[in-house]
Amino acid sequence: MKKIYTCIDISSDTIRILVSEYYQKEVRVLAISSVRAKGIKNGIIVDPDSVIERLKLAIEDINTRINVSIKKAIITIPSNQTECTLVHGNVPIVNEEKMVSKKDVLRAQNSVINDILPNMELVNITPIDFTIYENGSEIETIKDPTNRICDRLGIRAMTVCVPKTIIANFAKVVEAVGIEVVDVVLSPIADFEEIANDEFKQTNTALINIGKDTTTVSIFNKGIITNTSTIKIGSRIIDDDISYIYYTTKKIARKTKENFGIAHPRYASKTETYETRDVNGKMISINQNELSEVINKRLVEILNVAKNELKVLTNKQIRYIMILGGITDMPGINFVIEEVFGKNASSYTMNTLGIRKARFVTISGAIRYFERKIRLRGKEYSMFSSDDVETLVHNKARIGRSDSIFGRIFSYFLDN
Q1: What pLDDT does residue 410 have?
Q2: Are the C-beta atoms of residues 212 and 236 closer than 8 Å to each other?
Q3: Which residues are within 8 A (CB) of 413 and not within 5 positions of it... i.e. 6 or more apart?
Q4: pLDDT of residue 392
Q5: Rounded distance between C-alpha atoms, residue 340 and residue 207, angstroms
Q6: Is residue 33 a contact partner of residue 62, using CB atoms and an 8 Å limit?
Q7: 76 has which bridge partners?
Q8: R_g of the chain computed on alpha carbons
Q9: 3-state secondary structure of 329
Q10: Smallest Cα–Cα separation from 351: which of 18, 30, 62, 28?
């Protein structure tokens, strides 16, 4: 079975839809659509009708590109008001052999669900370890209890819960355009799934994702999220400053930042300029070095606020700090990060063909996370029917040689 997945990532700034094949542990982009979002503030849906309108545009675009209508999708959920809780549970082993099966492991995980508050929705549960009991006595604590003999199986796990209203609001706008929500993935968990290596999974790691309105700060201990917080400061304040100082519209300010901005004045030209217009239509010339000073001041402010939030979230030593978000595509960003956090911090570079911009980290990680969850349950799954797959196979577009049929059939690789 070809593993074809769709993910919808709705943020304050942009709505993104990714259709990809998961093949040989890699995400292979089939198509991606990206439109400016409306109706979302600080990561929360405030105007569902505006969100639906923009989402329809993204869906029409993606359907045109793949010549198939998407019907199912994973969606990402912001970490606003997320609660991470260490929980314990246990279940008896009732089969004749007293041997722990995968079903028993799932039963143990489900035993902790009763502790979740009625207004919260469980979006993730990660086992930390399991305890083997015989005759009421604790025998051993292990990572994988499968096929072990015991009377009772205990579990220690981390649960991640989000207010039901947040999930319901995101699910409703997606379902309103005819898409079935197959699963939800918390954005910081998706981020970690994308950037994590073996070293990150063995120590304490912090992720800082700078968005348009908010910045999300998350702590992971040996690959398990232990705390997360959303602070109301984002890259919008840079656009606001540029707009105010140069008397331009917010749209022009953003375009100037993205096309001409340098994160650190040390690496900006003192002679190069950018020509644009102010709010009255008059031509103005913006010096790159002066612009970089404006950008740098606000970037340092954002990073320092996030740095202080790290101290609130954990008192443990953090080995690695990874800075994410579209702003990290800006030249010179790593020099700013190092000045604020030191050498144990850096930005992440996407290396997936077709989505090599930092703004696609979350949507790619969500698909990786979903595929891993399906695989751990021993299942095969695709979001496209056999008829849809047949249509994709007979699409005549080609993108070069590959061992995978679906890695060859699409000629378009997004506007990134």
Answers
A1: 32
A2: yes
A3: 29, 32, 353, 354, 399
A4: 62
A5: 15
A6: yes
A7: 185
A8: 23
A9: helix
A10: 28
Q: What are the tokens at 144?
A: 């994988």
Cα–Cα dist 193/224, whole Å: 10
CA distance to 218, 308, 370, 379, per residue, from 104 (Å): 31, 42, 22, 17
Listed in sequence order, the residues at least 6 apart from 356 whose beta carbon sits closer than 8 Å to its beta carbon are 349, 350, 416
Nearest to 147 by CA among 102, 92, 94, 96: 102
What is d(CA 209, CA 187) in angstroms, rounded to the nearest whole number? 9
User: What is the pLDDT, as a whole number, of residue 413?
Assistant: 30
Is the CB of residue 126 less than 8 Å from the CB of residue 93? no
**What amino acid occupies position 318?**
I
CA distance 83 to 208: 17
Q: So what's the pLDDT on residue 393?
A: 52
pTM for the model stands at: 0.89
Q: Does domain 83-163 have CATH number 3.30.565.10?
A: no
For CA atoms 37, 42, 43, 45, the dihedral sign is negative
| Tokens matching residue 320 | 């690695």
Output the pLDDT for position 127: 92
CA distances from residue 45 to 40, 103, 161 in whole angstroms, order as listed: 4, 38, 18
Nearest to 154 by CA among 224, 93, 88: 88
Per-residue pLDDT tens over the stretch 4-63: 899 999 999 999 999 998 888 788 899 999 999 999 999 899 999 999 999 999 999 999
What does residue 99 show for φ and ψ, rounded to 5 degrees?
-105, 135
Inter-residue contact 206 to 218 (CB < 8 Å): yes
What per-residue confidence (pLDDT) applies to 22? 83
Q: What are phi and psi of 318, to 5 degrees?
A: -100, 125
Residue 116: its pLDDT value, please?
84
Positions in the chain short of pLDDT 70? 1, 387, 389-416
Amino acid at 141: T
What is the number of H-type helices and E-type strands within the chain?
10, 18
The amino acid at residue 234 is G
